Model the fold of this input.
Amino acid sequence: MKIPLFLLFAMVGWAQIERPQLGLMLDANGALRPVYGTAASATLGDPVLTGVLSFGCSAQMCLMKTEVAIIASDGTSAAAPAGTAIFTMHGASAYIYFPGSEQWAHWRDGQLEWIDFVPDESLSTGTVMLLEDGSMAATADHIALVRRDRSELDFAVAGVRQFFAIGKGYMQAVTDTGMWILRVEPGAEQICLLPGISE
Amino acid sequence: MMLRFLLLGLAAPMTMQAQLTMLIVTSTPTGPVEAPAGSVYTFAPVAAGDSADARFRARNISNAGVTITALGPLGPPLGGGFVVQFVPSTPYTIAPGNFLDIYVHFVSGPVGNYTGTLQVGTQATTWSVSLSASVVPGPVETVTAPCSGPDPSGAISFGRVQVGGLVNCTLSIFNPNPQSLTISPIARSGAAFSIVAPSSVTVDPGQSFSIPMKFTALITGPAAGTLTVGTRTYTLTGTGFNSPLSTPILSFDTPTVASNEQHTLTIRLPQPSPVAASGLVNLAFTPTVTAVTNDDAIQFVATSKRVLSFTVSQGSTAVLLNNQAGAVFSTGTTAGRITFTVDAGAFGLAGDPTTTLIVAPLPIAIQSASATRRANDLNITVLGFDNTYTAGAMSFTFYDTAGATIGQAIPADFSQAFSSFFKGQQSGSSFLMGVTFPVTGNASTIGSVDVTLTNSAGASHTQRLNFP
Done:
């Protein structure tokens, strides 16, 4: 295909350079901190919110669960059942499960919309995270990353008790002995230890 | 009721003014001791070039707050004099039973006598203490190796030696003054330290006098003493250690390291430890690039620190690092040398266990790259790191939707932008770069781009980036 002669680059272009932020992480003290740099050489910023029990981020938004509220990164918030929450992020909305009260809700436009769902039996929640093209699950001694094509990649990290989606293509795995960051982008999978915060 | 409160409030200033007492505080081995300050305070003679301090205390012994409205002398000394340090701005209220410490610092000037006044004013009363100090000619004192010091705090260190061993060095007293100098007294304290010197000595102009000093490690652990040389008193320190640990062997999970990696350090002793021992493992980083002085990401990751503790049990060769079998560290994104040292403190080591890892310069590492189109702008995003901090030169080769090259590769130089971005960085060389190409014509005919990024270590290429 010929390119028309009038197709010209108006100028060489210009560059904007900034410090890359991989996402947020929840430290051992319940503080939410930005993660900068690269997975294997990350540094942490100052806390953006404390008293956080769990959180989830999509490319558009982060939702944080404190003891009694859901707080969104756009500044909106809503009262919520006590205890932790599990997030499935969908762009600017999210499905949220509150294990303490066994309630489901949909977060949309800065509000919680309760979903009328009563399980026949009490739900048992394992440590699982849904991804765009698969899922991630923790076993006793490793993390299994399973793609839609059923290919599986295992990471030898034991005792994972929580996953958080911390930013585009990155997850946090929480164990009793450390915080891990997983890069889940296909073909670039990687797991590294996140910097710890001294008590 | 309200009226009674008002009356009490009015009465308070009259009662509090008489309830402030001025004290002088001296440090003793058992802690600070207070004594009435009196109206005159004379500093011990101060050698030229030295300084001296006095600690006064205004204690409120009443049941109401007392407000300090003025403190003096204030302002810089002129050719030597008195300044008040570490005091709050006034007015300052001292709560009942509390106190305010007022530090008077004397800075020596030329040889001679100096006077001043410390004033502490409340709303109704001012306390004054006449200050005087004399500056006398001072010698220059140095110590020989293996001792070190005196440091600015007046400490002389004899270092570390196995229990029962000796450390010998010499204190040299040099008289730089045009007149003879009599140094008196010369005395020491501390059972572990000894000197060979008269109690007084006269040093001629331009001459020196040497005092042999000796530290005997009598016990395991640190020992302290003092050495008084005329107007100066030095702190003497030394540490005795037990039979040393065999030289630790530091091992890594890989023989070589590169930037942006995490590795595990393990340590073992070649011979069983003679005692239950503990100490520190230190990590230090020296960049081999000139653009930065540090990379904070190079650290023991679990604790975000460059030091960790180690322990080893008696009879064991396994060294635990922060109670774990190994410690993960990050190599950061800066070329340089990562050095690990083991400090066994009072236990001592038979040899030097320092180990250095080299992080070599690399071409720019591309973590991810993407291309997007917005109207007639083509946007290219590259996330990566440049451990040489010399990024800037690039070239862009565009292709049409059939994969044919469009013209020549377009060179670009973003050195200035990268230089500005890297300036002052302490967190490594990772970067997120967005480049925009405005296009004249139908930009939808452009299908993909290759990007080449160059630094001082070589060139890197993205995979073919498709414009969606």
The radius of gyration of chain B is 34 Å. Chain B touches chain A through 55 residues (CB under 8 Å). Chain B has a mean pLDDT of 88.
